[in-house]
Amino acid sequence: MQSIEKLKFLTETQVRSIAKQFGTPVFVYSREGIEKSCDTALSFPNAFGLTVRYAMKANPNRTVLEIMKRKGIHIDASSEYEAQRAIHYGFKPEQIMLTSQELAKDLKELVESGVVFNACSLRQLESFGKLFPGKEVSVRFNPGLGSGHTKKTDVGGKTSSFGVWHEDIEKVKEIADAYGLKIFKIHTHIGSGSDPEVWRAVAQVSLDIAARFPDCRILDLGGGFKVGRMEDEKTTDFQTIGKPVAELFREFASKYGTQLHLEIEPGSFLMVNNGAVVSAVDDVVSTGNGGYTFVKLDSGMDLNTRPSLYAARHPLVVVSAEGEHSGKTAEYVYVGHCCESGDLITQAEGGGPVPRITGEAKLGDYVVMEGAGAYCSSMSTKNYNSFPETAEVLVGADGVFQLIRKRQNLEQIFQNEIPVSL
Ligand SMILES: Cc1ncc(COP(=O)(O)O)c(C=O)c1O
């Protein structure tokens, strides 16, 4: 029997107030929740010091970044644009590490400003060497193992293009020697929603790689910590996963004499359950006997593409528009508002509807999609069907709501288009 999901950080009264004050759909984030998650990450077990980098791809909203900055969290940037965005919002360049699939076009300027470069391929390492002979550099390795919550979020092993293949250590050394580079940091990241056991095994493989680089003094083990969105999903416990790894760092120190500093790069962990989307029920339609009852929301893949991309499950909580919910339940397929068969919020891997039991949903009721703090606003198919970018609201510890992103208007959607005479 499916469990009926509950609100994670909002009350029903808050949901109604937010919907009335800001309209729907709207993202809502909990400042208190984000700060608590930062505290948990900052207490990750470590032997010789820790730096936590926020994988800002998860949610690069200015206020979110500013909350992280006040907590002393550093930045994992995935593109030159993310690095520049973090600098724009007040991070020092030295607090940012760039780990990018594409070689940054302004690499020289970024590195000269102080941004740390993590070479993700032999070509990237060589390009860095040509620009900065004799300098220190970090290298990302593909450790040969990967794990993600789906195949699509697994970025390690033979099927993944991320990082230098672990058997190419000698080639890395040759390039480093040719340009006098010092490899001061080794980095691995094996996927999002990784199995904690695989994550731990990769820590050992990463230490073995670090042991081959005498100048290495930092080991960055990436992010990927699994976070349960649904009641039946588990969240990685940092103490359980981190203690044995801290022990491995101590063993490394006694064997090789280097006290490695640990870095981790959580994205999901810091944000997933600290964000939700408040939507309204726009329509309820049925496909008759043997069919389904569909609840259509006024939100969809233009603000959260995860269900269509990964068949990801998000808790859906019905909040009555009128007041107390009747407590009655019903089985629905939830769909988004985009004119797209794939805009199914409750869908099977590979497509197709999956019914979900939730509270009874009536026209105009609100539906809160939980677990929407990471990889939703940032990874949406924004402006598909010309729906405007969704507004974002922060709930403070005092329960005060602050608008932190305005809803986009039509003018902003048109702004970069240039009319030509035809
Ligand atoms: C290099 C790197 N570090 C950290 C992360 C964060 O992963 P997660 O949000 O699963 O913690 C990612 C995500 O793709 C990544 O590519």
UniProtKB/TrEMBL annotation:
<dbReference type="Pfam" id="PF02784">
    <property type="entry name" value="Orn_Arg_deC_N"/>
</dbReference>
<dbReference type="GO" id="GO:0009089">
    <property type="term" value="P:lysine biosynthetic process via diaminopimelate"/>
</dbReference>
<feature type="modified residue" description="N6-(pyridoxal phosphate)lysine">
    <location>
        <position position="57"/>
    </location>
</feature>
<keyword id="KW-0456">Lyase</keyword>
<keyword id="KW-0663">Pyridoxal phosphate</keyword>
<feature type="domain" description="Orn/DAP/Arg decarboxylase 2 N-terminal">
    <location>
        <begin position="46"/>
        <end position="270"/>
    </location>
</feature>
<keyword id="KW-0210">Decarboxylase</keyword>
<dbReference type="GO" id="GO:0008836">
    <property type="term" value="F:diaminopimelate decarboxylase activity"/>
</dbReference>
<dbReference type="InterPro" id="IPR002986">
    <property type="entry name" value="DAP_deCOOHase_LysA"/>
</dbReference>
<dbReference type="InterPro" id="IPR022644">
    <property type="entry name" value="De-COase2_N"/>
</dbReference>
<dbReference type="InterPro" id="IPR009006">
    <property type="entry name" value="Ala_racemase/Decarboxylase_C"/>
</dbReference>
<feature type="active site" description="Proton donor">
    <location>
        <position position="339"/>
    </location>
</feature>
<dbReference type="InterPro" id="IPR000183">
    <property type="entry name" value="Orn/DAP/Arg_de-COase"/>
</dbReference>
<protein>
    <submittedName>
        <fullName>Diaminopimelate decarboxylase</fullName>
        <ecNumber>4.1.1.20</ecNumber>
    </submittedName>
</protein>
<dbReference type="InterPro" id="IPR029066">
    <property type="entry name" value="PLP-binding_barrel"/>
</dbReference>
<dbReference type="InterPro" id="IPR022653">
    <property type="entry name" value="De-COase2_pyr-phos_BS"/>
</dbReference>
